[in-house]
Amino acid sequence: MANTPENEPNEVPALPSSFSLISTLGVVAMLSGFLVVLVYEYTKPIIAENQRLATERAIFKVLPKAKSRLTFIINEGKIELADDKAKGELIYAGYDANNQFVGLAINAAEQGYQDIVKLLYGYQPDKGCITGYDVLKSTETPGFGTKITSDEEFLANFNCLDAKVNQEQTALINVIKTVRHGTKKNAWEVDAISGSTITSNAVGRMFNQSGQALHPIIAQHLSLLKTAKQQKGQP
Amino acid sequence: MSKATKKETPLTMDVFTAGIWKENPVFVMMLGLCPVLAVTNSVENSLAMGMASIFVLVCSNALVSALRNFIPKQVRITTYIIIIATFVTLVDYIIQAISLDLYNKLGAFIQLIVVNCLILGRAEAYASKNSFTKSVISALGMGLGFTLALVMLGGVRELLGAGQLLGYQIFSLNFQPWIVMILPPGGFIVLGSWLLLINYIEQRKTGKLIAEDSASHCTVSQSGS
Fold first, then answer.
1. CB atoms within 10 A of CB B137
2. CB-CB: which of B71, B86, B100 is closest to A51?
3. Pairing of strands A68-75, A78-81
4. Do A20 and B72 make contact, defined as CB atoms within 8 angstroms?
5. pLDDT tens digit string along B63-85?
6. A89 with A217: CB under 8 angstroms?
7. Which residues touch B220 (CB under 8 Å, ≥6 apart)?
8. Which pLDDT value is given to residue A149?
9. Which of A23, A138, B31, B203 is least enclosed by beta carbons within 10 angstroms?
């Protein structure tokens, strides 16, 4: 007679002990931790170098006349020389072959359509102009938000976007703002890209916030920025 | 306690090839569709996501298979998730080390491989029941099948959405890109079109086989009578 469920002994599989369950999870978690730490330690310097190269590339892109650079940190209204690993608000000053100051590269970030858009922009404190930018991080919609890197009309806004500081050196003279496509009248306005208004607005907002917060401090310490390279005497 | 151990099926070429086409995870099993629709707006992204998925799939299946006799049934899913999350974290670091640009393009979808049901599905349905070698070979086949599907979608979307393939201009500059193809709806349209075409071909093949089969039956019965 074939074995049917009725005549089989009613066997309930024994539950493994709690120790067995916990120890399995413990061993697997330890193995996992070991692998993660191993790969993290191995890739950490490579990732740091990649980030340094990406920043370096972006700095020399927004300051095309620069041949060398120095890193500064803005801390409680003061600007000091720093290294690239310093934590805080970093700005980069570019210098030409004769160690003459050619401009600043400044980080800015703002919420875009998908996620935070991060830029590095060029700033000429003497002229009070924002002179271009490089996108460090963006996951904006392809074909729409990504036009901030390719739309020639939009990029023309930054031939010299007015970001002058007032006489008291407390804020920008004019608030930088994004206006509807085709309605730009002033040098401090950003002409939006038709169809990607959210990203265009984000660019305008981030320049205004960064300008209001940092440009007055830069204006107060401009002589330090200009002479730092010569004082340091490095090639 | 003397239970007969289940006899394992032999290792054949089919273990490897099944995942590539016959049981393709995207076109047949419809697994892991979230990254399939999200990152296939270019061939480069598709290839990168495919490679990352192969790495996670093969490594996690290998480890799950190697530990299958030691993992109690009650904590198996938790254990598989820990194993998969580990390899996803590793691939996350590795991609950052290879290219930051690529890492930024793929965004959160690298981390989201953890919840790709293809990986967990294979760990539970295959690796936990089969030998190490078979699990690795099957995972490799499945991973290649997944990558193939991603590239098939990415190729069409990049070609129609940007007029390019792997960044090289294919159509003339007068070509007006179909922006919709690189947007989320484009993913649905291209996936639907591929499914339509593949099912149509499969149905025709099955119909042909049935017709041939019935024709041979008729010939046999006629000769028999």
1. 21
2. B100
3. antiparallel
4. yes
5. 999 999 888 988 899 999 999 99
6. no
7. none
8. 86
9. B203
pLDDT digit string, tens, across residues B133-168: 999 999 999 999 999 999 999 999 999 988 888 878
Q: What is the pTM of this model?
A: 0.77
Nearest by CB to A28, from B83, B94, B101: name it: B83
Question: What is the residue whose two structure tokens read 């930051």?
Answer: B100
Phi-psi group of B30: left, alpha or beta (phi > 0 → left; psi -120 to 50 → alpha; rest → beta): left
**A contact test, residue of B96, B128, B158, B173 with most A CBs within 10 A:** B96
**Record: contact B96-A43, CB cut-off 8 A:** yes
Judged by CB atoms closer than 8 Å, whether chains meet at B82 and A25 is answered as yes
Q: Answer whether B45's CB lies under 8 Å from B166's CB.
A: no
Window 64-93 of B, Cβ < 8 Å to A: 67, 70-72, 74-75, 78-79, 82-83, 85-86, 89-90, 93
Per DSSP, the three-state class of B157 is helix
Would you tell me which residues 76-115 of chain A have a C-beta closer than 8 angstroms to some C-beta of chain B? 115
Q: How far is CA A220 from CA A70, A168, B31, B72, B191, in A?
A: 18, 10, 59, 67, 58
Q: How many CA atoms lie within 13 A of B68 on its CB side?
A: 17
Among positive and negative, which fits the CA dihedral B141, B144, B149, B152? negative
Q: Are A152 and A160 in contact (CB under 8 A)?
A: no
Write out the H or E segment, with its range, that includes residue A119.
strand A116-124
ipTM exceeds 0.90, yes or no: no
